[in-house]
Amino acid sequence: MDQTGDSLQQTEILSKVAFFQLEDSTDYPDAILELYTPLGNQVFRPGKVPFEFNVKNFPLEDATPGVPLLFTTINGADPVGQLSPIFQKELTEGTYRVVGYLVDEEGLALKNFGNYVDRDFLVGDSRAFPYSAEPFLAVNLPRNEQSISLGEELIIDFLVLGGDMKLDGLKVLVEINEFTYEIDQMSPIRVENLPLGSYQVKIKLLRKDGKELEGPFSSVSKTIHVR
Q: Could you tell me where the beta strands, DSSP code E, fall in the chain?
């Protein structure tokens, strides 16, 4: 009796969780983000590494004070908002890939060509990433260990770099524990009605036939909580 009740409850939960594709932001289609420093595979000493972005056709200076519209993510880690396009970051010896991108007023990544940029660089005595022409992911949302309230929607927002989803025959698979969703374009995803609990959000870039890509950063995993 209890097992049947549990099974029915689980079926009810599964039927309530829903994924929706959101429309891409049409803001600032001409915005350009350039990266002057670092150069490709430039080598730095361990310590403070300089970054210099240049932003065109985008009101970075008019942003609400304390609210960043430029974000960077390094080696797939959570994005960090930058209040200035020129800054330094403390880094230890290693091989790094930085992705810089602009966001709209809602915090969603702008996805037109030129709105984002990536660059590999080295710190200390490190080797460059093996050459790979494989596309890769940069995840804007969610952030690792992010908490949302019961009934609040979860937003998944990502960029595909180094390739074109349609031309290269790519898709993104989102797994949230037992819940799954596939999408073949860089549109944000809204997830509704997640029950209370902790979830592993896995975002994977795949070929249309389901084959996983071999390059670095083709899969990103985040933990989120519904409280």
A: 18-21, 32-37, 42-44, 47-56, 70-74, 80-82, 86-91, 94-102, 116-123, 136-141, 146-148, 154-161, 170-176, 179-183, 189-192, 197-207, 219-226
Domain ranges, residue 189: 2-23+133-226
Extract the tokens encoding 182.
Answer: 């596939």
Give the residue among 38, 35, 140 at the shortest CA–CA distance from 96: 38
How far, in whole angstroms, is CA 20 from its chain's centroid? 18
Asked whether residue 99 is assigned to any structural domain, the reply reads yes
Same-domain status, 140 and 113: no
- CATH code of the domain covering residue 107: 2.60.40.10
Upstream peptide bond of 216 is cis (omega within 30 degrees of 0) = no
Let me know whether 191 and 151 are in one domain. Answer: yes
Q: Could you tell me if 33 and 117 are in contact, meaning their C-beta atoms sit under 8 angstroms apart? A: yes
Chain position carrying tokens 């091989």: 95
Question: Are 141 and 210 members of one domain?
Answer: yes
Indicate whether 54 belongs to any domain. Answer: yes
In sequence order, which residues have a C-beta less than 8 Å from that of residue 45 and are 6 or more positions away?
Answer: 123, 124
pLDDT reported for residue 6: 52
pLDDT along the chain (227 residues), means of 10: 48 73 87 97 98 96 89 97 96 98 95 95 94 91 97 97 94 97 96 97 96 89 97
- Give the pLDDT of residue 131: 79
